[in-house]
């Protein structure tokens, strides 16, 4: 009996390319989809390839084989626009050297957001507490800090002094249609609440933040904690979920299990929010897999705004839209 396992292993590691041009490899970490799709790839013989052809097609749920769309690219990244919402797309790339073509790369599957991307920045004029919340110049990032007054009040912490959430909202409201937006919560964040809220409810929170200093006040329900479950069946003019300490907390519900192991999930790298204003429904998504983590009804009888609240140290970064200008900047880098 002859043992050829070692020889078989060595033969399996040998690369064979009939065309003589290496196969490009799509970079899954740098490729993403948001308002558009950004596809990036590596090529071992980048300097020897004259051009690339990126192919993409929608994966039909009826398993119908749709034809590939092709676009020629000189670099190693490409932005694809005008993709349908809530669909899976397959991407692959091949390299060209003169008239010689490499085999196609392994396909990358990306799922587009469930609705058009809603563009906004943090509202610098909404009346947020600028002692506790620090907004950057681009208004796409907010950080939470203790504040000087809280440090001076530290001696009273043990005699009943409670901190409250500090709110900030988007600078554009929603009055109809379906919308989706995404952001990242910094892993070090202690407590962050994100979601949607009506204009009248936000004014109440922003103007009277100290009404929430009671430990029995629950921001998710708008009621004392004792009446939280009773209010969950009715639609409210806001919905917020809690994120903190690298965890995503699903709110309590009378129709689902409230055991901690079923309500506490790992915090997604990027979180998306889908608001269907006309149907009065809001959903929270894991953007890495475009998976809905939690969904519920919300009262959209007034203008709705993206709402954010922070307590303790934390940070929120709005997802940057994929644009041609962004690609040119990255190429220059």
Automatic annotation (TrEMBL):
UniProt region (Disordered), positions on chain: 213-234
Family annotation (Gene3D superfamilies): 2.60.120.920, Immunoglobulins
InterPro entries: B30.2/SPRY (IPR001870), B30.2/SPRY_sf (IPR043136), Butyrophylin_SPRY (IPR003879), ConA-like_dom_sf (IPR013320), E3_ligase_FN3/SPRY (IPR050617), FN3_dom (IPR003961), FN3_sf (IPR036116), Ig-like_fold (IPR013783)
CDD domains (UniProt xref): FN3, SPRY_PRY_TRIM36
Residue ranges annotated for the B30.2/SPRY domain, each copy included: 100-325
A Pfam family the protein falls into: SPRY
Keyword Coiled coil assigned: yes
Keyword Transcription: no
Alphabetized UniProt keyword annotations: Coiled coil
Biased composition annotated in UniProt, kind: Basic and acidic residues: 217-226
Origin: domain of life: Eukaryota
Record protein name field: E3 ubiquitin-protein ligase TRIM36-like protein
Organism: Equus caballus
């Amino acid at each position: 009996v002859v043992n050829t396992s070692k020889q078989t292993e060595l033969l399996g590691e040998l690369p064979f390319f009939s065309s003589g041009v290496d196969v490009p490899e799509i970079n899954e970490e740098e490729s993403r989809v948001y308002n558009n799709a950004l596809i990036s790839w590596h090529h071992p013989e980048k300097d020897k390839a004259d051009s690339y052809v990126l192919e993409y097609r929608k994966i039909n749920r009826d398993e119908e084989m749709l034809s590939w769309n092709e676009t020629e690219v000189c670099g190693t990244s490409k932005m694809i626009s005008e993709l349908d919402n809530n669909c899976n797309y397959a991407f692959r790339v091949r390299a060209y050297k003169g008239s010689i073509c490499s085999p196609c790369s392994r396909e990358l599957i990306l799922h587009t957001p469930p609705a058009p991307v809603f563009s906004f920045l943090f509202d610098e004029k909404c009346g947020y507490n600028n002692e506790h919340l620090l907004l950057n110049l681009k208004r796409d990032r907010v950080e939470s800090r203790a504040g000087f007054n809280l440090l001076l009040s530290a001696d009273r912490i043990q005699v009943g002094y409670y901190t409250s959430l500090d709110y900030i909202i988007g600078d554009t409201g929603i009055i109809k249609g379906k919308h989706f937006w995404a952001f990242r919560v910094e892993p070090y964040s202690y407590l962050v609440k994100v979601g949607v809220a009506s204009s009248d409810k936000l004014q109440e929170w922003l103007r009277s933040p100290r009404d929430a200093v009671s430990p029995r006040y629950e921001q998710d329900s708008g009621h004392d904690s004792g009446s939280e479950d009773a209010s969950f069946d009715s639609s409210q003019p806001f919905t917020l979920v809690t994120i903190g300490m690298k965890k995503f907390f699903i709110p309590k519900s009378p129709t689902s299990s409230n055991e901690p192991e079923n309500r506490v999930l790992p915090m997604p790298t990027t979180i998306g929010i889908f608001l269907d204003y006309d149907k009065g429904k809001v959903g929270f998504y894991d953007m890495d897999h475009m998976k809905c983590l939690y969904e519920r009804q919300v009262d959209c009888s007034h203008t709705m705004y993206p709402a954010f609240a922070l307590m303790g140290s934390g940070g929120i970064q709005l997802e940057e839209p994929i644009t041609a200008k962004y690609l040119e900047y990255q190429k220059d880098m």
